[in-house]
Amino acid sequence: MGVDTVVSTVTGTAQLRLIEAAVQCRVRRFAPAEFEGQPSLRSQNGLLDRGRGAALALLQHYRGYIQSTVYICGVFYERFSVNGMTSLKIGVNTGYGNEGDYIADIRNMTATAPVYDSAQNMSNLCLTSVYDVAKFVVRSLDMPSWPQEMSMCGERMSVNALIDLIQQCRGTCIPFIINIHVS
């Protein structure tokens, strides 16, 4: 009781129960554990959904009782750090929080990436630091009302540009072995 805003970091059934409890306790605002890309561009019930679609549907159902927003921040830079996001204790249970689990395995200089979209255009990424996302979330708490989505992006670049940048940072001319996927 007395809580104004809940920013969730759990998914699945635990998040659904948290939403229901927030509504029951008359919490004013709820931000689901969504810190990625636009929900409307994701495949429905995809492998990586982890119950997020159900959480958004439940928040939509309760929209007359609680405000909600989705923080759209793209890919965390920290995914490409030594030991990946798990070094920050983020994404531990997602199945892709370790070093090399997502797009690029920098240590082994390999990448499995959506270089082109279905229309054969270069695929782009929005990259943002978890620290900048945290600052953005804290600032949003002072907003009198929330829009349905709040977007942020530290840097936008193509997948190829990301791979080139990784090579520069590694100081190597060794080419990446790239498995190209169409998104």
Gross morphology is elongated
Give the C-alpha Rg: 18 Å
Q: In sequence order, what are the helices and strands, one letter per element?
A: EHEHEEEEEEHEEHE
Indicate the percent of residues in helices.
Answer: 10-25%
Biggest sheet record: 3 strands, parallel
Number of domains: 2
Q: Enumerate the strands of the largest sheet in spatial order, edge to edge or round the barrel.
A: 1-2-3
Counting H and I runs of at least 4 residues, what is the number of helices? 4
Distance linking N and C termini: 44 Å
Structural class: alpha/beta
Outline the low-pLDDT stretches: none
Number of strands: 11
Strand content: 15-25%
Mean pLDDT score, rounded?
Answer: 85
Please give a structural write-up.
- With 183 residues, the chain is an alpha/beta fold.
- The chain contains four helices and eleven strands.
- 25% of the residues lie in helices and 22% in strands.
- The protein folds into two domains: 72 residues; 85 residues, no CATH class.
- A three-stranded parallel beta sheet has the order 1-2-3, with no helix packed on it. The protein has a three-stranded mixed beta sheet with strand order 5-8-10. Strands 6-7-11 form a three-stranded mixed beta sheet.
- Helix 1 runs parallel beside helix 2.
- A hairpin with a 4-residue loop joins strand 6 and strand 7.
- The mean pLDDT is 85.
